[in-house]
Write a structure and sequence with these properties.
two-stranded antiparallel ribbon, 6 strands, two-stranded antiparallel sheet, alpha+beta, globular
């Protein structure tokens, strides 16, 4: 297929109708023979540029490429799905922050940092949301599970890799439990990452002293960025 415009049109149609991010290799296989990786990358960059200035943008996240509504119009798009978003406790959001910045970690590592026990329901809520998963087991007595964040977690933040997470120095946790209405799921997750508890687990070199327990309180959830499908 020699018509580059037709190829771009096919890529655009696939991304608009997929309902989930599509990786470069998936898009390449739309054609016979498959496109080479550099051609796909170049065409996607051109396609993204062609949507500049519209209310919808083509972005690359951890799982691939997707079309989504721009942040400025999220409050309008959320009216299409009036059901209330999930609410997460401070315990859940602090646990998520620790996993994100210290992964892979065990429940024992998390408990050492937070200074309180981590209930099964806290971890399960993050697994059910597909933000964390078991990636292995530590070779210590009992072989505790090691938890890490998922591609879905990065997708929901609009990030391509963990290296794009903001540094702890850039985050402000002063309003962690004071903002009543976050407008996007990414906002909620970044608030969680601002938890000032993240430090090396107590059983690792350079560990910080255990922090005293804090009372858990409710944290409002938020809707995910609207994705075209």
């Amino acid at each position: 297929m020699d018509d580059l415009q037709q190829i771009r049109n096919i890529l655009e149609a696939a991304l608009l109708t997929a309902g989930e991010p599509l990786a470069g290799p998936q898009l390449a296989k739309l054609f016979d023979p498959p496109l080479d990786a550099e051609t796909v990358r170049k065409l996607l960059a051109e396609l993204a540029e062609s949507w500049t200035g519209r209310s919808v943008e083509l972005v690359q996240v951890a799982s691939g490429w997707r079309f989504q509504g721009k942040p400025a119009i999220q409050s309008y798009l959320e009216r299409l799905t009036p059901e209330k978003p999930p609410r997460y406790s401070r315990a859940v959001m602090e646990t998520l922050a620790i996993i994100a910045y210290q992964q892979p970690v065990t429940r024992g590592d998390i408990e050492a940092i937070r200074g309180v026990a981590v209930s099964t329901s806290v971890v399960k809520s993050l697994e059910d949301r597909q933000w964390v998963e078991v990636v292995g087991h530590r070779e210590t007595p009992g072989r505790p599970a090691l938890y890490a964040t998922t591609k879905t977690f990065l997708d929901d933040l609009g990030l391509r890799s963990l290296s794009e997470l903001p540094s702890l120095a850039e985050l402000d946790a002063s309003h962690l439990l004071e903002i009543p209405d976050a407008t996007t799921q990414a906002t909620e997750a970044q608030l969680a990452l601002a938890v000032p508890l993240v430090a090396p687990p107590a059983d690792r070199p350079g560990a910080a002293a255990e922090r005293g327990a804090a009372e858990d309180s409710g944290e409002p959830g938020a809707a995910a960025p609207s994705v075209l499908h």
